[in-house]
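Lecture notes, unit on binding sites. The following record was shown on slide 14. It pairs a sequence with fe (ii) ion.
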Amino acid sequence: MRTTNQRSTLPVPPVAPDPWDDLVQEDRVHRRVYTDENIFAREMNNVFAATWVYVAHESEIPEPNDFKLAWLGTRDVIVTRDEESVVRVFSNRCSHRGASVCREQRGNASQFTCPYHGWRFDNRGQLFGIPGKNAYGPTFKARDMHLSRPAQVASYRGFVFATLNPDAPPLVKHLGNAARYMDAWIDYNGGAENLVLAGTQLFRLACNWKLIWDNAGDGYHVPFSHQSLLVMTHARYGGGDMTYFAEADRSKMSNSALDNGHTAIDQRAEMHAESAWQQQRPQPGREPYQDYVAATYGEQAKRVLDTTVGAGMNINIFPNLALIGNQVQVLQPTAVGETVMHWYATRRKDVDAQVNTMRLRTQEDFPVMGEMDDAANFEECQRGLFNHPEDEWVDMSRHYETGKDVAAEDGIIRGLVTTDLHMRNYYAQWKRLMQANPTLCLARGKL
Ligand code: FES
Ligand SMILES: [Fe+2]
């Protein structure tokens, strides 16, 4: 190399552009993040393994030896409550040849026997039985062949999360200021000790998981996507649920950017302004129930009726848990262009059966009457993004330049309900995760 006392005039080699900065810009994202198999494969490590992912609610496994199947992205796991009532999470992937060890969605079992060659595991994932064990030598016997476990498992007021990343911050830190919204939602539903996840409704959708997540904080689409529902409600009942979205930006609803990509739409100022119950669309059994509550609860009747319907918040815990109304929605990405959406109804232990029946009617209402509108649009977006490679961009610039997203007194940045702040906030977190090189680890040793 030439040396000189003068300042070098050699050109500085350009820094290779960060592909993630190209793909995710402040107000738009590239179509490839929804359609590229390689990006999806990286997401399964950098997002669905390297950060905290929701796996189960403790009420789904209330008794010792209860179990349920769950997912960390495409990884299948079994969530159990062991004989000492400790919640355990381990891979539903046999340590022998990879078959699923458990094929029931949920149940009660102290052990799992792999259907392929009969290896037996206890409900902490530890191998204890191998048919014809004498055929295996000392090298095999020295290996850890227990079912693998994520690096960390933790619970926040009944919501169980796991991650393969040993360096992930504590769960409560990851939830950050979103925990305040979770607390409000849980308390509205009777508190952690009274909340029970009940039945599930499944949708298998031909779209990337992020198209569903984009919509989770979208207060813009309602009067258009759900037009038929709003028109029908208005024509038959003269207004009611969700009609305050017609002039959404003049409403008192808000959209909040929370820590680590979490977000929330708060509809309470409109939905709960007078009576959420009165705004709800009619449902089977409504009038007899209203009479029953009036007779049973007296002065408390209005409060009881209002808590029967939704909590008035959509809280999105990135990347896969949404608390909507009084339901719990969980996303399970299965392929770059396919996602399973799980809608769980909830019930309360501290109310009588009639109240829970009406909660269930409410919980049937939107998934049946409205979710199809959204599902059709998610699949149409996927087709459009996949089939038109020359049209590269997905827009998320609504209210980006209007100065309406501002820090509130509590330090949280909030915007009008139709802002794309939700997308901009979670994509910033998505990009941070995709740029990182996390350590992922599965424990296999004896507990
Ligand atoms: S794959 Fe499970 S015992 Fe062989
Ligand atoms: Fe919708």
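Take-home: The chain has two domains: 53-155, 179-435.
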